[in-house]
Amino acid sequence: MELYQLTIHELHDLLRKKEVTSREIAESVFTRISEVEEKVRAYICLSGDKAFAHAERADRNIQNVSGNISVLTGIPVAIKDNICTEGIQATCASKILHNFRPPYNATVIERLEKEGYVHTGMTNMDEFAMGSSTENSSYQVTRNPWDITRVPGGSSGGSAAAVAAGECIAALGSDTGGSIRQPAALCGVVGLKPTYGRVSRYGLVAFASSLDQIGTITKDVTDCAIMLRAISGHDRTDSTSVDIPVPDYTTVLGKNIKGVRIGIPREYFIGGIDPSVEGCVRESIKVLEGLGAVIVNISLPHTEYAIATYYIIATAEASSNLARYDGVKYGYRTKGQDDLIDMYMKTRDEGFGPEVKRRIMLGTYVLSAGYYEAYYKKAQQVRTLIKGDFDKAFEAVDAILTPTSPTPAFRIGEKTEDPLQMYLSDIFTISINLAGIPGISIPCGFTENGLPVGLQILGRHFDEEGILQIAYAYEQATKWHKRRAVIQTTDIRL
Ligand code: GLN
Question: Does residue 50 carry a catalytic annotation?
Answer without folding.
Answer: no
